[in-house]
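>> received
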Amino acid sequence: MSVRTEQDGQVLTVTIDREEARNALNGEVLDGLIAAFDAARRDDAVRVVVLTGAGERAFCAGADLAGGLQGGEGGAVAEHDARGMLRDLFAAVERLDKPLVGRLNGHALAGGMGVALACDLLVAADDVELGTPEVRVGLWPFVISALIAEHVGPKRALDLMMTGRRIAADEALAWGLVNRVVPRAELDQAVATLAGELASGSPVAFKLGRRSFHESRDMGPHAAMAYLHGMLDLATRTEDVVEGVTAFFSKREPEWKGR
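>> returned
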């Protein structure tokens, strides 16, 4: 299997397990990631998902240029659909309804950078690099260009995509591409601490909040506020809000129901 999962308490770790290929994306990896995220969404025992790559060299090196994302004998349409699997992965991430933490154990390049940016929060080892080197092999980061521009704006996005250069973790932090940069020796502890903090939160708050965040991103301010007003009304009717407010005034930790 090119994707493995391991659950520790309420935290599920999903690992791209192709260390020999720098955890490059192929059809098996994309299928495995989509299946893992969809299973996690349905599993109430999972509160937080952590995504990482095997080894220490790469989080994900992008598409497997050796194996490709080919449709085999199915022709052009099958090949087109196969290449669309990355978009399917991003859709699976969006519908996850639970916090997704990226553990950047190594370089995140090309499509791998897109996979990293699809995570809600990113913790990076201080020696990793991010970049979109597609232009150097005559390609362009078509699918992930929308994600990159959303994170850093058009000028910085074009800088990355036109030059194909890599940026260090500290620069990625300054650009807002990652949330935390820590020494490599502290990466596991930093990820575990963040995942534990998220796991202690209300599942229904994360579900509704994460969903509303993604749904409202493409709306204008007026439409977004109207939609978010409705989501606020829905949230106030949940048992978790009642429990959270009661626990606050009782000066105790809440016992979330997830509904």
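>> Residues 27-42 form the longest helix (16 residues).
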